Amino acid sequence: MNQDPIIQIRDLYKSFGPIDVLKGIDLDVPGSQCAVVLGGSGSGKSVLIKTIVGLLKADRGTIKVLGERIDLLEGDELDKLRLSIGFLFQSGALFDSMTVSENLMFFLERHLKLPLAEATDRILETLEWVGLPEKLHDYPASLSGGQKKRIALARSVIMAPKILLYDEPTTGLDPVSVRLIADLIVRLQVERGLSSIAITHDLLCAEIIADTVHFLHEGRFIISGSLEEISRFDHPAIVTFFGNETTLTS
Fold it and tell me: How many other C-beta atoms lie within 10 A of the C-beta of residue 225?
C-alpha cells in the first residue's frame, strides 16, 4: 500500500520584494528517507528549508508535513507541529553560556517538563548515541568543530522528532568528522525511521546520506535523481558545481 509522503511540497513560490527566490518547487519525501538539496550560493536552499518549518511564509503553494498543511498553521498549532521537527542549524546554535547538559536540558524543561531523573537519563542516552558522554559538563567553547556538530545533532533529536531538517550539517569539518556526522544521519533513518531534508555543498556527505538528490538552480529543481545521475547531467550550473570533484564512488 502506498503511503503519503511525510513531507509534500507543491508549486512553492517565495519572493523578497522584486527578487524571486523560489519559483515553483515540488518535492516529496517518503518515510525514513533523506532528500538532499544541492545548489550554488543564492539558489534558494536556505529559503526552502525555512519555509518547510514555518520560519518563512511562502507566497504561493502548499507544504504538507505529517499530513498537516504547515503553510496554513499559526500560533500554538504551528508550535505543536514544530515539536515533531528537529532543525540542525549550520552554526550548531549552541548556547555558549550553557554546558552541554544545560543545552540539552533547556528544551526538555521548556517543552516536555519531564521529571529530573527521566530528563537526565534521556540526556545521557542521547550523548551516548552521538559518542560524547564525557562532554556532559563541558562548555561549547572547549569542543572541536566536529564535537559541536554532534552535540547540536543530539539537541536536535532530544525531543524525539519525526523529521529532521539539516542546514549544511558538515560545513567546515574535516573528512573524518564529515563521515561521523553523515553516519549518524543515516542511523537516524535506519534506527528511528526519521525522514529528513538536508541542504549541503558537501558531496561526501551527500553521497553517504542521500536517498534522492535535487539540484536547485534559479529557484527551480532542474533535475532530481541519484547523486551520480545528477553529476553527469549536462547543465552549466551542475558542471560548475561539481567541477573536478572526485568523491563519487561506484
Answer: 14
Residue 111 falls within a domain, yes or no? yes
Name the one residue in this structure whose C-alpha cell is 511540497.
Answer: 9
pLDDT digits (tens, 9 = 90+) for 206-219: 999 999 999 999 99
Assess contact for 106 and 67: CB atoms under 8 A: no
Domain boundary among 160, 190, 219: 160
Domain boundary among 160, 184, 218: 160
pTM: 0.90
- Rounded CA separation 249/109 (Å): 44
**Residue 150, in any domain of the structure:** yes
Q: For residues 156 and 175, give the distance between their C-alpha atoms in angstroms, rounded to a whole number.
A: 22
The model's pLDDT over 145-199, given as tens digits with 9 standing for 90+, comes to 999 999 999 999 999 999 999 999 998 899 999 999 999 999 999 999 999 999 9
Geometric angle at alpha carbon 147, from 144 and 149, rounded to 5°: 110
* The length of the chain, given as a count of residues: 250
Residue 247 forms beta bridges with which residues? none
Task: Please report which helix (H) or strand (E) contains residue 250, including its range.
Answer: none
What's the start-to-end Cα distance of the chain, in Å? Answer: 32
Give the distance from CA 54 to its chain's centroid: 14
DSSP 112: I
| Cell numbers found for residue 30 | 517518503
Torsion of CA 229, 232, 236, 240, to 10 degrees: 100
Same domain for 111 and 59: no
Cell 519559483, located at residue: 23
Domain, as residue range, for 50: 1-84+163-243
Q: What is the DSSP letter of 79?
A: H
